[in-house]
Amino acid sequence: MKTIYLVVPCYNEEEVLPETVKRLMAKLQSLRERGMITADSRAILVDDGSKDKTWQLITQFHAEHPQDIDGLKLSRNEGHQNALFAGLMQAKEKRCDAAISLDADLQDDVDAIDRMIEAFEQGNDIVYGVRSARETDTFFKRSTARGFYRMMSMMGVELVYDHADYRLMSLRALEGLAEFREVNLFLRGIVLMIGYPSTTVTYERAKRFAGESKYPLKKMLAFATQGITSLSIKPIRMITTLGMLVFCVSLIVLIYCLVRYFTGHTVPGWTTTVASVWSIGGLQLLAIGIIGEYIGKIYLETKGRPKYLVQEWLHEDQL
User: Fold this and answer.
1) Are 82 and 47 in contact (CB under 8 A)?
2) Which terminus of the chain has a smaller tally of CB atoms within 10 A, N or C?
3) 130 and 160 in contact (C-beta within 8 Å)?
4) Burial (0-12, 13-18, 19+ Cβ within 10 Å), 220
5) How far apart are CA 234 and CA 147, in angstroms?
6) Number of helices and strands (H, E) in the chain?
7) Measuring CA to CA, how many Å separate 142 from each of 145, 173, 202?
């Protein structure tokens, strides 16, 4: 039997949390009865600076079920990736055999946990939960999701298609993850870089049980930008290639202008001039913006600020 920790980042999840805890406790009990996990296995609920009653509920659930529920409260909202990382590192410190990360919205099928543990027992350090279909998504959501994965692939970022953050990681994989020191976390890409034996299990993703999605289009675009600039330098290389192409075109235009001058056909071209100025200016601003994204990342990394600060930790040993 293995000691398994379930890590659940939570941000303003008071509407769904009671049902989430109910299902997680039922799953833990079922796994214990079948001899798949030890009695020390539990769930860590990570409060990512919620503004509602999420932490009060976590405190209540821990008091009522100290053997099943632990609570971790961050000092402020650090974002989903940092909250998830905090929970995984806490599980690592407790020396669990493996940790399974999943969202609090009950869209991740908890029954897939059984197959993840079986795959772990077969020697896989990382088991990715992959969606088998997207029937529950709207057309817009499906289209943007496909576009997200295509864009990330084009930019040189390696991802597991249709995988979010529902995965199992062994203690060895968690220790490997702890070696990644960057502040700008994109765990979907970083976990792949660990390189230990891995596999996938498929599941059907359900609709959100309650509450609102924490990833609207604006945040999804920011998330994609974070992933690209954190894991790939391909955009910089694209700028270099574009610069070389523009330089070659400018040489051709220069030769054309000189030929026109020496043959006496120097008629001013207002449209050509304006179009050239605007197009080159736009390309320059785009290039500066992309380079600025990377400089900003370097700026944050060199500061060496902590990814998160723990305000409170609720564990059975404290009772």
Assistant:
1) no
2) C
3) yes
4) middle
5) 18
6) 10, 8
7) 5, 31, 17
Homologous superfamily in CATH for domain 4-231+306-318: Spore Coat Polysaccharide Biosynthesis Protein SpsA; Chain A (3.90.550.10)
What's the pLDDT score for residue 159?
79
Q: Which of 55-64, 97-106, 120-129, 248-257 has the lowest mean pLDDT?
A: 248-257
Q: Which of 78-87, 167-176, 218-227 has the lowest mean pLDDT?
A: 218-227
List the beta bridge partners of residue 70.
44
Q: What is the pLDDT of residue 315?
A: 84
Residue with tokens 């961050």: 74
167: β partners: 101, 128
- How is residue 318 annotated by DSSP? G
Task: Tell me how far CA of residue 146 lies from CA of 142, 149, 151, in angstroms.
Answer: 6, 5, 9
Contact 72, 47 (CB under 8 A): yes
Helix (H) or strand (E) segment spanning residue 125:
none
Structure token pair of residue 58: 């976590």
Which has more confidence, 161 or 220?
161
| pLDDT, tens only, 194-219 | 989 999 999 987 765 555 655 566 66
The whole-number average pLDDT for the span 83-92 is 95
- What pLDDT digit, counting tens, does each position of 23-60 carry? 999 999 999 999 999 999 999 999 999 999 999 999 99
Closest CA to 113 of 195, 5, 190: 5
- Using left for φ > 0, alpha for ψ between -120 and 50, and beta otherwise, residue 73 falls in beta
At 289 the three-state DSSP class reads helix
Instruction: Tell me the DSSP string of 78-117.
Output: --HHHHHHHHHHHHHHTT-SEEEE--TTS-S-TTHHHHHH
DSSP SS3 for 75: coil
Q: How far apart are CA 107 and CA 208, in angstroms?
A: 5
